[in-house]
Inverse folding.
């Protein structure tokens, strides 16, 4: 089979190692190499079990002392030379997105090219967006907090609370190209309250009170485990603090928030569809001591 390619006239970002030959018409980018041909880094002897190298947080086994959104290899994958490589990959991905490539295909291609780990690929995909999406979201962002005084806000509950739990746990959070804060915690339908949950909810309520917000509604996805428990805890903390807040557990939170104003979320789809949004997590983040904040888009 013959693969036809077309040479680009435009240049890539400075320092990029991305090949200049890409087949734009192909739906799938060609793989860098065949993973079956790669040798095991640790050859196994007969009857020897495969060594466990990575120990990550499990949503099914969380306890009150759990460190949300943390993986042991984060210490090496998001520091030093590995972080520099990720920043270069970020510039290359942004280049492709700005020229019409699909997010998924472009992310896979860049991840393969730079031999990124699964965690690094997730960070890359969540941090980088096209200039068009950045401009769309910036146009809807509420940049003057005074306009929230006396108004109500609609909070993407799990999205916002989990990001703050991750930051409070000292796990990596990322300043993204659209200005939002995102994390690497995988929800996957499972969630358990941890020791940082109450602190995250209190931080949200404290910030909203300082902004003069009249009421907050936390929208929680009903399919996610323990959404009812989180709803109860939010109501209890609201009563303790004397703030007007409630939690609604529904199906299709994304669709519900997409048609509302004054939304608090970092979900890209909701940001593109909602009437207006407020970057609450970015405002709270500097007030969390010892936070591990990474920006691969600069």
């Amino acid at each position: 089979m013959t693969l036809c390619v077309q040479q680009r006239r435009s240049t890539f970002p400075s320092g990029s190692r991305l090949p200049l030959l890409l087949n734009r018409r192909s739906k799938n980018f060609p793989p860098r190499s065949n993973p079956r041909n790669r040798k095991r880094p640790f050859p196994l002897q007969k009857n020897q079990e495969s060594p466990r190298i990575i120990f990550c947080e499990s949503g099914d086994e969380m306890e009150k002392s759990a460190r949300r959104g943390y993986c042991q290899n984060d210490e090496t994958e998001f520091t030093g030379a590995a972080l520099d490589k990720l920043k270069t990959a970020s510039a290359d991905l942004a280049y492709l997105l700005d020229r019409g490539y699909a997010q998924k295909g472009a992310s896979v291609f860049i991840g393969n090219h730079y031999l990124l780990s699964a965690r690094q690929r997730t960070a890359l995909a969540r941090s980088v967006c096209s200039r068009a999406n950045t401009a769309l979201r910036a146009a809807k962002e509420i940049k003057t907090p005074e306009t929230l005084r006396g108004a109500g806000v609609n909070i993407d509950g799990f999205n916002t609370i989990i990001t703050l739990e991750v930051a409070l746990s000292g796990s990596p959070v990322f300043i993204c190209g659209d200005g939002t804060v995102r994390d690497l915690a995988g929800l996957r339908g499972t969630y358990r309250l941890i020791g940082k949950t109450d602190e995250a909810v209190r931080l949200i309520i404290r910030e909203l009170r300082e902004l003069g917000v009249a009421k907050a509604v936390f929208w929680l996805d009903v399919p996610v485990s323990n959404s009812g428990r989180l709803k109860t805890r939010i109501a209890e903390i609201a009563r303790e603090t004397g703030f007007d807040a409630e939690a609604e557990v529904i199906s299709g939170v994304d669709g519900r928030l997409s048609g509302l104003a004054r939304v608090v979320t970092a979900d890209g789809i909701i940001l593109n569809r909602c009437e207006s949004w407020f970057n609450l997590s970015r405002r709270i983040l500097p007030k969390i001591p010892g936070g591990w904040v990474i920006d691969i888009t600069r």
